[in-house]
TrEMBL record:
GO molecular function terms listed in the Swiss-Prot or TrEMBL record: O-phospho-L-serine:2-oxoglutarate aminotransferase activity; pyridoxal phosphate binding; zinc ion binding
GO cellular component entries: cytoplasm
Biological process according to GO: L-serine biosynthetic process
Domain of life: Eukaryota
Protein name according to UniProt: phosphoserine transaminase
Similarity comment: family membership: Belongs to the class-V pyridoxal-phosphate-dependent aminotransferase family. SerC subfamily.
Keyword Transit peptide attributed: no
Keywords recorded for this protein, A-Z: Amino-acid biosynthesis, Aminotransferase, Metal-binding, Pyridoxal phosphate, Serine biosynthesis, Transferase, Zinc, Zinc-finger
Length: 345
């Protein structure tokens, strides 16, 4: 199949076509150096400005580096989906974890911050800005006086304008909006560095990474190179503002079909926290008609719309509208959803 014939609207790692074309060109001979980009030394100047780490690794790295910021050795976790739940579970190995919200498995809303049970002595307050599986996205930055705020932005970084100065740390795996798998971006406030627990593995120690320009060990050079190309691509398109404009346009088009379907498509999420990136929905009823959903996925594939199967833990359908998914591709999906509804309702 030719690439231009497939619309990858659900997969985790879509890249802009122009980025892939450039990577293909530079695969064998990078910028006329006579060597492949994968053969370049990571000590060359091109690779010295980016922090790396590991995706799920940050679930461990953050508590290991930050729990000791306060004598409480306790951290507040806002659990709004399975990724923040995993992060909280991991942190509990190293210190105390206070769950700010009542326990639930439903993950369809964000309770009002006035109801959160926050601990003013917490070392940090952790949340996931966009829950990739459940589709819960914060539309505002939660704040709690004096307690450093930590955010997992793995699935929505560079898709909306944010005030970085409000955070103690932000981390994001690259493979959704800013590159391919293998590299994790960590932004951390300098004054939070240097209090790692003695058991912290050296590769996770922020102070060691910062002191070595993120080059304490051999970094994933090719993934960093691709991330650089994606950053350039984002700037050429008009920056984060443009990504945000597209994200609003794309997600509104899909939510409009759902909301005007009279219950044929059902998105379980509270409207105040609906994600612009990941839209999970069921077909036929709130519980989902599995036979109809199977038909949807099959017919979508026939129409070149791929990767729409929902995550196995929630079932149904999931649309993912990462930066590299175009408005036009989204409109192909929207038309398909309308046609499918007309055929089967
Ligand atoms: N956080 C979020 C919000 C994610 O979506 C993911 C992966 N999908 C992770 C963390 C884990 O990242 P990785 O798979 O790179 O370990």
């Amino acid at each position: 199949r030719h690439r231009s014939e497939q619309h990858n609207i659900g997969g985790p790692a879509k890249l802009p076509a122009s980025v892939l074309a450039q990577a293909q060109k530079e695969m064998v001979n990078y910028k006329n150096t006579g060597v492949s980009v994968m053969e370049l030394s990571h000590r060359s100047s091109d690779f010295t400005k980016i922090l790396t780490g590991g995706g799920t690794g940050q679930f461990s790295a953050l508590p290991l580096n930050l729990l000791a910021l306060k004598p409480s050795m306790s951290a507040d976790y806002v659990v709004t989906g399975s990724w923040s739940a995993k992060a909280a579970q991991e942190a509990a190995k190293y210190g105390k974890v206070n769950l700010v919200l009542p326990k639930t498995k439903k993950y369809t809303d964000i309770p009002d911050p006035s109801t959160w049970t926050l601990n003013p002595e917490a070392s940090y307050l952790y949340y996931c800005a966009n829950e990739t599986i459940h589709g819960v996205e914060f539309q505002h930055i939660p704040e709690f006086c004096g307690v450093p705020l930590i955010a997992d932005m793995s699935s929505n970084i560079l898709t909306r304008d944010i005030d970085v100065s409000k955070f103690g740390a932000i981390f994001a795996g690259a493979q959704k909006n800013i590159g391919c798998a293998g590299v994790t971006l960590v932004i951390i406030r300098e004054d939070l560095i240097g209090k790692a627990l003695p058991i912290c593995p050296i590769i996770f120690e922020f102070q060691v990474q910062v002191g070595n320009n993120s080059l304490y060990n051999t970094p994933p050079t090719y993934s960093i190179y691709i991330m650089g190309l994606v950053f350039e691509w984002i700037l050429e398109q008009g920056g984060v503002a443009k990504m945000e404009e597209w994200a609003i346009k794309k997600s509104s088009a899909v939510y409009d079909v759902i909301d005007c379907s009279n219950g044929f498509y059902v998105c379980p999420l509270d409207k105040g926290c609906r994600s612009r990136m990941n839209i999970p929905f069921r077909i036929g009823s709130a519980q989902g008609d599995e036979a109809l959903e199977k038909k949807f996925i099959q017919e979508a594939e026939n129409a070149k719309l791929i990767s729409l199967k929902g995550h196995r833990s929630v079932g149904g359908i999931r649309v993912s509208l990462y930066n590299a998914v175009t408005v036009d591709e989204t409109l192909v999906l929207v038309q398909f959803m309308k046609d499918f509804m007309a055929r089967y309702r």
